[in-house]
């Protein structure tokens, strides 16, 4: 692989403070970026600065507008990124790949875990779908009922605490990430329920691959919402649980440090379906960098 320097055109986006470098590989000719180059680009002191890099490629999947590749700021390929996926929609629109004119118009794209849908709810507000998650795939950790493991395209350890503002997210998050999950790692989400209603959450996340706290985490918001639902299910659907095949629709507002995200899903007979992650997306600037 050639390591000769070349110019890369990019756009910078942020979604509730979760920020990304976006590159349109459908229009850009050049060699793949190496992990070292991606690491330098994401460096906040000597590069552009970002939590990660999203690249749009052509997709072989029928009906998909593009394939989304995501790289963490450590330069390594990452798992599903919810906020990065939402930014990819705004980037695709601004790049002329699609014109989103109404909430009814959806884009189909491919990510590392399969095909997703997304669209624009209003100017500056975008949503993506998350693939179904079976309740059997959500594990309760320990006996206190305050720790869960959820895999929704990315691995998350969700810990409920009295007040997220009292947690040393970087120190505790890093320890749990390495002690419990080793080299592969997991994202560590600290969650506080605002009231007895688990549809209003405060969230802070230590992200693997970034190895730091980020201002928001999209898959963390969805994982935390599902864990909160299961943790407080008796308060959600006491009457419905009398029926063998209960169906419950839930919408959760998640307050991250960089802004609010909205997570909705349908819980249907042990499966979380129609999971949607919604929230703001902002184009910050465009540029070129020599790598």
Automatic annotation (TrEMBL):
Coiled-coil annotation reads none
Query: Where is it found, in Gene Ontology cellular component terms?
Result: cytosol
The question of whether Amino-acid biosynthesis is a record keyword is answered with yes
Recorded hits in Gene3D superfamilies, A to Z, give: Diaminopimelate Epimerase, Chain A, domain 1
**What GO biological process terms does the UniProt entry carry, in alphabetical order?**
lysine biosynthetic process via diaminopimelate
Q: In which pathway does it act?
A: Amino-acid biosynthesis; L-lysine biosynthesis via DAP pathway; DL-2,6-diaminopimelate from LL-2,6-diaminopimelate: step 1/1
Give the Enzyme Commission number.
5.1.1.7
An annotated Gene Ontology molecular function: diaminopimelate epimerase activity
Keywords annotated in UniProt: Amino-acid biosynthesis, Isomerase, Lysine biosynthesis
Catalytic reaction(s) noted: (2S,6S)-2,6-diaminopimelate = meso-2,6-diaminopimelate
NCBIfam families, alphabetized: DapF
Q: Which family does it belong to?
A: Belongs to the diaminopimelate epimerase family.
Instruction: Spell out the protein name for this chain.
Output: diaminopimelate epimerase
Which organism is this protein's natural source?
Pomacea canaliculata (Golden apple snail)
